[in-house]
Structure to design on (159 residues):
């Protein structure tokens, strides 16, 4: 049995040893590292344990992490492909990065009030805007294709 903290390598006696669950395995840690690392989410904790090169049952940690890493990689690739498709050819006025086109997004406006029937609310309480968002700084631009909808929304705000 190892009796050093896997993170800080501090030597631990029986009383000081703590067990921390890291990705399908239990690791020996000191009280300080226990407090520090239990704050991480389980993926970060498993990665931190593996990165020490001193973890017990490294195989188990890898078995836990590999499918998660695969999934994250696939997700990132999908997102990248989607962003690629969304490129609008416009650049951000603030930072110059690519503006991504999210197409028409319908925003619901205002609160439901008892003055309006549901039909009225549906007719006047939403606004469709074409949304462009900067990939880098998040600055957004909105285009409103239907001026009449905006007219109604502005009217509703006055009431
Ligand atoms: Zn420690
Ligand atoms: Zn920007």
């Amino acid at each position: 049995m190892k009796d050093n903290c896997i993170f800080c390598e501090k030597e631990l006696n029986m009383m000081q040893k703590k067990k921390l669950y890291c990705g399908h395995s239990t690791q020996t840690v000191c009280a300080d590292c226990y407090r520090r690392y239990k704050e991480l989410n389980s993926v970060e904790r498993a990665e931190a344990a593996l990165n020490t090169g001193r973890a017990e049952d490294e195989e188990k940690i890898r078995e836990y992490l590999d499918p998660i890493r695969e999934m994250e990689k696939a997700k990132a690739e999908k997102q990248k492909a989607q962003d690629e498709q969304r490129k609008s050819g416009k650049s951000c006025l603030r930072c110059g990065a690519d503006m991504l086109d999210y197409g028409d997004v319908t925003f619901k406006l205002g609160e439901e009030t008892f003055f309006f029937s549901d039909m009225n609310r549906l007719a006047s309480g939403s606004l469709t805007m074409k949304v462009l968002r900067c990939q880098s700084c998040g600055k957004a631009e909105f285009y409103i294709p239907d001026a009449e909808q905006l007219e109604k929304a502005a009217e509703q705000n006055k009431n």
